[in-house]
Amino acid sequence: MAIDYALKPLISILKGEPLQGIYFVDKEIDKTTPENPIHDVNLVDRVQGQVQEFVEAIQLRNVSL
Question: Quick one: which of 31, 39, 46, 61 has the fewest CB in 10 Å?
Fold first, then answer.
């Protein structure tokens, strides 16, 4: 979270759009299966939602350039 708070002002100065962060606890990541390290369906949905928001933000930025 410290990184999140440190980067928000920088992102704002660069006219970026901060996205909602996702934080994991070590026990939520299975390091023995790197091809599918997250087994919790809710966490996978949250990650996929954030990736989709990121892609949409990039697409909007590219359209306005």
Answer: 31
- Half-sphere exposure (Cβ direction) of 47: Cα atoms closer than 13 Å: 13
Report the distance separating Cα 16 and Cα 63, nearest Å. Answer: 15
Whole-model pTM: value is 0.61
pLDDT in tens, 12-64: 666 666 667 787 888 999 999 999 999 999 999 999 998 998 888 888 877 75
Distances 1 to 10, 35, 44 between C-alpha atoms, Å: 15, 26, 20
Q: What count of residues does the chain have?
A: 65
